[in-house]
Design brief:
Strand content: under 5%
Structural class: mainly alpha
CATH architecture: Up-down Bundle
Radius of gyration: 17 Å
CATH topology: Methane Monooxygenase Hydroxylase, Chain G, domain 1
Helix content: over 70%
Largest sheet: none
Number of domains: 1
Order of helices and strands: HHH
Number of helices: 3
């Protein structure tokens, strides 16, 4: 069991809201809405996705990485996390 599973309901609620945001943006594009309005919604969507990412990262650090460190396997786990963080920062 992963640590985030304790917060599965909260995460799923966030993801469902994000799904709604995506559908709303799609409708805005389909309706030919004003570009800055669409971009504002995309910015909100990006913020919502970033928050989900942070929740999952915190869960991974406090669960999987902590366990790996305690069992002397921390280096590989830390390198994995750093690889993920590098990908996120580059976007």
């Amino acid at each position: 069991m992963y640590a985030y599973e304790q917060h599965r309901d909260s995460l799923m609620a966030r993801l469902k809201r994000i799904e709604g945001q995506i559908k709303g943006i799609m409708k805005m594009v389909d309706d030919g809405r004003y570009c800055p309005d669409i971009l504002q919604q995309i910015s909100a969507l990006t913020g919502a996705m970033d928050e989900v990412s942070l929740i999952l990262l915190e869960s991974h650090l406090s669960g999987c990485v902590t366990d790996a460190i305690q069992t002397q396997n921390g280096e590989a786990s830390i390198q994995e996390v750093m690889h993920i963080i590098r990908k996120v920062v580059k976007r």
